[in-house]
Amino acid sequence: MIYEIRDYHYRTDLFDAYKAWAEDAVPVLKSKLDVVGFWIDSGIESEVLGTDPMNPPLGQANITWIIRWESKAQRDERLPEVIASEEWQAVWTKHPDPDGYRQMLGRFMEEM
Description:
The chain has helices spanning 15-32, 72-84, 86-92; strands at 2-10, 35-40, 63-69, 101-109. It has 112 residues and is α+β, with helices and mostly antiparallel strands. It has one domain: 2-Layer Sandwich (Alpha-Beta Plaits). A four-stranded antiparallel sheet has the order 2-3-1-4.
């Protein structure tokens, strides 16, 4: 199994509209993918620690979700199918700003 951790930096000026849209989007994602969780920024200041801490220019991601996959190959095959599905496209057309993602970082990790 692998876990895809998706971190998004979404437009802060549309964040409330995004959260309202996500109320419809997340159930669709969960019905089509093995979504471990979907999290949005709580407004609590991030803690950046370590021996060389840095705050990225965009700040910290304000949306994170994790999807469990059998393999990267399964993900590469299945995700485009979900994105192209009628159900997802119906939700996507209601998105407040599909171009509002300032950055998306996808990481693939294994559980220890």
